[in-house]
Amino acid sequence: MFETIVPLFPGIPGGPELLVILLIAVLLFGANKIPQLARSSGEALGEFKKGREEVESELEEMRKGRDAGEEAESDETRTRDAEPESS
Fold this sequence. Notes:
mainly alpha
């Protein structure tokens, strides 16, 4: 008889929940502080992304350096093995 509506994304709040969260935020911080809080949160998120990208690029450079070092070692080993030993 009664069907239960299952949300597509169970962890994400819907419309009524977002209104309650917004109301609580206005009561806690005041209407004047909310734009400032949103702005500073956006800046913090941007800094976090920038730092993450820097770390990822450094790791990629380290991987490339390691791969180039291994390639040089294998070339050196092949050259050494190809040379006849003189006694």
